[in-house]
Design goal:
This protein is an alpha/beta fold and about 500 residues long. The chain is built from 22 helices and 12 strands. Strands 2-1-3-12-6 form a 5-stranded mixed sheet. Strands 9-8-10-7-11 form a 5-stranded mixed sheet. A two-stranded antiparallel ribbon has the order 4-5.
Length: about 500
Amino acid sequence: MSTTPAHLHARAHRGLRRSLVGLTAVGLLGLAACGSPPATTGSGQGRTSDGTAKIDPKDCPVAALDKAKGPVKVNLWFSGLVDPALGVLQDMAKRYNASQDKVVVTTNNQGNAYAEGLSKYQGASSTPSQLPQIMYLEDTMLGELVDKGQVLPAEACMVADDFDPTSITPAARAAYSVDDVLYPGYMNVSTPILYYNKVHFQKAGLDPENPPKTIEEIEAAAKQLKDAGVSKKPFSFKADQWFVSTWLSGVGQDMVNNDNGRSKPASKATFDSAPAKELFGDLKRMNDEGLLNAFPVTDGSIDHYLALINEDSSMLVETSTASGTIAAALGGELANGTGGVKIDTSALDGKKIVPGSGEYPGLQSAGQIYASGGAFFMMNTSKPEQQAASWDFLKFMWDPENATIWHTEGGYLPVLKDIVDSPEVATFQDTELDGKLLTPAVEQLATADPDRSGPLIGPYASFQDILQGALEKVLFNGAEVDPSLASAQTEATALFKDYNG
């Protein structure tokens, strides 16, 4: 697999380019309208009644590109991307445009937060002629997009163009499929992982090479760190419902009915459960005992990261895409140029922060996650030649070299099977600190259960707000767990009744 010297040069300085400001774009979704999606002139049919759909390659007019006169223009809206991923996307479009003369792709930034792109889409969806040809949105938008019938299923294009959908890693393919049909043309996948300070672990008598694997072990480590006077509130935690959903999914607890909304649209919430009460109780107890350094989800806030940099905390759960910034802010590139050898404990002497990472600690075991992140959706509201051109660009992104760049430069996880164990990915993991920090996320995605793909919800943004509100009441207002969860579940179920009509 080849890569240009420019790519190698960019990777060598990646960690120093990334800033904590970039983390503010790991976005929050704003509130979506509670009612049913408006009728549109999209050609899609939405959800099926039996939970399965038949792919017809004729639905994707791949031949229309050959018949087009002159370059076909493709407008790509995106949000929630900052450097380095922003630069990777823009460079990808430039290289694609230079590689052929049939299509011209223009990338248009709709904002640093996913919420801004969502708002722009919702404002234009009722007038399809205003929509772009490709939209990059957060994974949670999948349900609403399919319900509105405005997305061209990428699997139809794949079948029509002899691209094998099974070349995509199973967990990623399952998470982004609806009624057994894959919808996005490409996915930027991330998962939550644990970041921690190895120096603090050593000072507290903890094994710096053996991070906690469960929430119970996080609590035990936090007690040891606090008792040793190493950190004031050892576990830094942003009260994001994404972590809650991932934890519950890891033990098979659905957030909504109908197989987590996968077999047919959800009609009621189901998260008020024994695992949820246990989880909320654990977080509340740690918070009450000063072991949890809890922060509200505030757009643009990086306080939960600063807690590690200021050494007020020793552990943090966050997105895998933060690996580059964590590497730069906490440790920089490895001085000897090789991260394949574990950092010897003697090397910790004299240093304040040496970053480490581990699989996402679960309720029962580590690494129980589902694929999250963002996705490139092709809109079926465009002309046939524009739909064909959109797929041609996204197929370019699936080239092994380009898929590798998304991982090694963009910070997203490899979703093409052929590159997961490639020499370049192995070198990235062995020689660069952000690659080493990403390794647990790569490993847990490779073993993730496709049958636990997380919830598929139409009014996801409003659902998120309800669940997150319950967590915030418990952590910041001292509310009791049981009534908070019960009230939130009742409110979420009413949301589905309104949405489904």
